[in-house]
Amino acid sequence: MAAPPRPESIALLDRLMAALEAKGIVTEAEVAARQASTDKASPETGARMVAKAWTDPAYRALLLSDGKAAAEQMGVSMAGAPPLGVLENTPGRHHLVVCTLCSCYPRAVLGYPPNWYKSFAYRSRAVREPRQVLAEWGLNLPDSVEVRVVDSTADYRWMVLPMRPAGTEGWDEARLAGLVTRDAMVGVAVPVAG
Amino acid sequence: MPDDTPIPAIHDLGGAARFHCTPVEHDEVPPDAFGKKVDALRQILAQKGLMTVDELRRGIESIPESEYFALGYYERWLRSITLLMVEKGQVDRELLP
């Protein structure tokens, strides 16, 4: 598990905040307000986008061609965010997203990146032995399925459009969205019905 | 035969052999108050035109190896943000660890 910040880091943050506040650059209230708005972003947004793409062909086409525009159609502000590419899983191809250099992640639609996504092990291994990493997490893909790993960067973010599970015929968007986990949109899992 | 493949920089972990036998731990603990505050501060400084994502990364990637792996994720961010604010003359150099 991630270790808590050391006391000297907490003290450094306090000193930096005080110095920036003294210069009139930021206030504690501004930081708190920004934190509160960041806290609101969650994978539920991405899940709604996926569910809509499963039921609305026009939205699916938009999502696959311009993820940012598709997110904005859901009411998410993507101002200043890098482009969002969305990759479609198919019976023959599975996508896995990693950021080998740091932790680049489509935060506006998935929220804060989880600690494992930022871990040295994931960053290192996802590109070298993706099938092994997925298998360790309980996702065993047959050899007939190609695994394509994509590297999110500071300038381009990726998310996965998983396949709609069998047995969900007739489900509405809200019910479908309930099946779509953050892990499925990163590619370390696939949605299952029931 | 000389191997002239450059040694990857510290942050360039894709395929790095040192973690091949390390399982990916299912760590779902959300960011703590410290991390969220550092994150919010970074966003505000970026919005005010005082730093960019590329500058943040350069600051993180310049952390010496021994500290890079010892510091937590948002501790590395804080180190980089502090460095950038010092470099830009916004805060005193004495702030740097």
UniProtKB/TrEMBL annotation, chain A:
Residue stretches spanning the membrane: none
Domain of life: Bacteria
InterPro entries, per database record: CN_Hdrase_a/SCN_Hdrase_g_sf (IPR036648), CN_Hdrtase_a/SCN_Hdrlase_g (IPR004232), CN_Hdrtase_asu/SCN_Hdrlase_gsu (IPR023900)
One Pfam family per UniProt: NHase_alpha
GO MF annotations, alphabetized: catalytic activity; transition metal ion binding
Iron among keywords: yes
Family annotation (Gene3D superfamilies): Nitrile hydratase alpha /Thiocyanate hydrolase gamma
Keywords: Iron, Metal-binding
Domain Nitrile hydratase alpha/Thiocyanate hydrolase gamma: 14-189
Positions annotated to bind Fe(3+): 99, 102-104
Family statement: Belongs to the nitrile hydratase subunit alpha family.
Protein name per Swiss-Prot or TrEMBL: Nitrile hydratase subunit alpha
Protein's organism: Neoroseomonas lacus
UniProtKB/TrEMBL annotation, chain B:
Residue ranges of domain Nitrile hydratase beta subunit-like N-terminal in the record: 10-94
Gene3D superfamilies: Nitrile hydratase, beta subunit
A Pfam family this chain is assigned to: NHase_beta_N
InterPro entries, A to Z: CN_hydtase_beta-like_N (IPR049054), CN_hydtase_beta_C (IPR042262), Elect_transpt_acc-like_dom_sf (IPR008990)
Name listed for the protein in its UniProt record: Nitrile hydratase beta subunit-like N-terminal domain-containing protein
Organism from which the protein derives: Neoroseomonas lacus
